[in-house]
Amino acid sequence: MSKQKSNSKTKSGIQLILITLFIALVGYVLFSGVSVGVYDIGNVSNNINYGLDLTGGVNVVLEAEATDDDPVTAEKIESAMLTIRQRIDSLGVSEPTITKQGDNRIRVSIPSVSDQEEALTLIGKTAQLEFVGPDGTVILTGKDVVDSKGVMQTDSSGLEKAVVTLKFSEEGTKLFADATEKYIGQAIQIKLDDEIISSPTVNVAITTGEAVIEGIGNIEEAGNLASLIRGGALPVKLVPIEVRTVGPTLGQNSLDKSIYAGMIGIGLVLIFMLIFYRGLGIIADLALIIFIIIFMIILTALNVTLTLPGIAGLILTIGMAVDANVIIFERIKEEARLGKSLLTAIDNGFSRAFKTILDSNVTTLIAGFVLFFLGSGSVQGFAVTLILGILVSMFTAVVITKQLIILLVKTELFKSNTFYGI
């Protein structure tokens, strides 16, 4: 029996040491990065997307042009904003801010884009795609296209070139088949906003419902054009009246100071937990480090854009994670004062604290979801980091902290309740 107990203590000690070493290794790789052959692993600072307030970008104000036959309405402005967002999102650009100004203006802020012409091309084109026959007849338009992609394609000579593939709807397939049969040996012009971008000659009738736009400069241009076509035509003509490159509102120096201040704050929290909760504080600090590692991995994996409000949400959730540990530890103290054994006090303490932690976090989660669904831009960024942080902090506080404490107690290296701050 004594041998089994000794083996159990040794096993628990080894597990605790291995977990600590693993956390240290993952933390180092995550924040410092390592190179394995040609691959660079980790270094989350280089992999996280930063918002306009941290990295700068392009700010564009567009004004809708009205005519006597085609007035500007609130519905058209809303539809134009949705189309612009779809275009930007399809290229993976980080968290654009799109807001309505007055009755006929739209402001678009795109982070991490410094080329004004690129921004205007991306959001300003009306993207009215037309296939026009040699007699001037419009065969079909962008509304008949259900999908479009920019790809590299090998031609008959074996050379790779950038093209845009088009896939038509059922109606578009029939229209295109009839037209290509009618115009064999003639050229069909492909126009974007009345500009001819390709004039392929029809050799055979095309009945597959697919077509290719050639004459594209490179794969990036092909991708941009495909994005415009997928996004659809703007319901109203937009004229840029203000285009400017925006520098980061914080600046790199201020950002570095903010990160430095955050590290000091986390360090003070770690010290506080050690002083007031001793052995339990050690485990709380370890769990907090695990929380930060998991949270940063999720931010990177989900391609979340980090803005200044997002950083505030991260810091807030770190405080909430520590707060959950404080509630748990106080419950454990109460159980220990009643004469319960250490393992029993830990188990009862977690059970009693869980409902309190759950209630407080659920109410904050509700607020986070309200901000996410009703807010926009940086407000949504704050909501995302808040929601993710709460979920991860609950997991680390209730699951990881408990298991680490139980492992530490089972090693029996420290039998005195004084070590655990009880």
Explain what you see.
The chain starts with a helix and ends in an 11-residue tail after the last helix. A hairpin with a 5-residue loop joins strand 7 and strand 8. Helices cover 57% and strands 18% of the residues. Helix 9 runs antiparallel to helix 10 (342-374). With 422 residues, the chain is of the alpha+beta class. The strands form 5 sheets. A 4-stranded antiparallel beta sheet has the order 5-6-4-14. Strands 8-7-11-12 form a 4-stranded antiparallel beta sheet. A 3-stranded antiparallel beta sheet has the order 9-10-13. The protein folds into 2 domains: 2-47 and 251-411, Multidrug efflux transporter AcrB transmembrane fold, CATH 1.20.1640.10; 52-246, Gyrase A, domain 2 (2-Layer Sandwich), CATH 3.30.1360. The protein contains 11 helices and 15 strands.
For this structure, the CATH topology of the largest domain is Multidrug efflux transporter AcrB transmembrane fold
- Helical proportion, percent range: 55-70%
Alpha plus pi helix count: 11
Can you summarize the main beta sheet? 4 strands, antiparallel
Determine the structural class based on helices, strands and strand pairing: alpha+beta
Number of domains: 2
SSE order: HEEHEHEHEEHEEEEHEEEHEHEHHH
Q: Look at the structure and give the CATH class of the largest domain.
A: Mainly Alpha
- Total beta strand runs: 15
Work out the radius of gyration. 30 Å
Instruction: Choose one word for the global shape.
Output: elongated
Mean pLDDT: 80
Give the name of the CATH architecture of the largest domain.
Up-down Bundle
Per CATH, the superfamily of the largest domain is Multidrug efflux transporter AcrB transmembrane domain
| Strand order, sheet with most strands | 5-6-4-14
Low-confidence stretches: none
